[in-house]
Amino acid sequence: MSEQIITAVTNALHSLIDPYTDNKMTAGRSLKTVKVSDKTVTVSLKKGYPVGPVVSEISELIRQSIESIDIGSRALEVVIDQEIISHSAQQGAQAVPGVKNIIAIASGKGGVGKSTVSANLSLALSAAGAKVGVLDADIYGPSQPRMMGVTGKPEALENKMLLPMVGHGLKIMSIGFLVEEETPMIWRGPMVTQALEQMLRGTAWNQDGEELDYLIIDLPPGTGDIQLTLSQKVPVSGAVIVTTPQDIALLDARKAYKMFEKVDVPVFGVIENMSTHVCSKCGHEEAIFGAHGAAKMAEDYSLDVLGEIPLEMAIRELADSGTPTVIAEPESETAKRYQKIALRIAAKLSIKKKDFSAAFPNIVVENT
Q1: Has residue 353 got a pLDDT over 90?
Q2: Which of 103, 229, 237, 338 is found 20 to 30 A from 130 (Cα to Cα)?
Q3: Domain with CATH 3.30.300.130 in the chain
C-alpha cells in the first residue's frame, strides 16, 4: 500500500506546475522524498529560489493536487526548503568571488524607472530569505545610495578591496559612495568600463563569510560601453528588461533585448513600469502611457511579462526618502507586485543549468 501511495503522489507532483517557474513542480530535482508511515504522508521539496513568502501557497497547491489520492487516515505533511546555487553564465566570463548569481536589470531608455524597480526587487528578494547585493552600474547617474538611504564612504581593506556599504540588509556598491553627490563624472568610455570592473571585482562581497545568492546590477540605459563590458566580462546569469508601455520606450527596450540575445545572456522577461495611473482622489485607473506595450513585445520575442507596476506618487516619494515601497509599505498592493515579480525572476533562474565551472581544474600546457 505504501508503495502505491508513493507512486500516486509522485505522479501527481510531476503533473503539478510551479506558478513561479511555469515549469513542473518537480523540475530540477526539486522533489526530494515522499515518505509514508502509519500516521503520515510526508512530501519534501527543495526549491532553488527563496520560498519564504510562498511556502503556504505552494503547500496548498500540493495538497489540492493529491486530495483525490486515497492515503487512508494518514495526515499529509509538506516540507519545503530552499537551496540557491550558482547557475551558468555566458562563456568566457570569470566568476566573481562571493557571488553565486548575477542578474542585470536593463532598459534601453532612461526615465522608465529602472533604478526604482531594481531597488525594490532587491529588497523583495532579501525579504524572501535570500542574500542580496546591489551594484549601481550607472556611473554617470548613480541613484542607489539615495534610494537605499545610505551615506558615507566604503572602508578599504589591507588588500585594497572595498567593503560594500549596507542598507536595509543589502550589500551595496556605487560610484555615488566614492564621489560627492553633485560631482559630475566627466569620463570617457574606457574609464567608465574600468570603474565598473573595479567596483564589481574590487568589492569584498563575502568579507563576512556569506556568499551573495544574487547580485543585482542596475544598468544605465542604452546599449553602450558598460553594457558591452558586462556582456563580455561579467558572468551574467540572466537579464530583466524594464519598460513603460509607450512606443518610444518599447523601441529601445527591444534594442536591449537584441543586445542580450547577441551575447547569449538569457532574458527572463519584461516588466512594464508605470503601467497605469490610479487617481488618489477618485480611484479612476487610466493607462496614460498606452496599454499592453510590454505584452506585445513579450509576444514578439516569446518572453514573459513578469509583472506590471502602476504609476504612483508613493513609489517615487518612498524611493527619494531612502525607504523604497517594499520596505516602507510591505503589505501594500504595489509591494506585493514587486515581491511576486522578484520571486518569478529567481524561480526562472533556478531552472537554468547549474554552474559547474568551479569543478574543473585549470589546465596549463608548458613546454619542457
Answers
A1: no
A2: 229
A3: 2-82
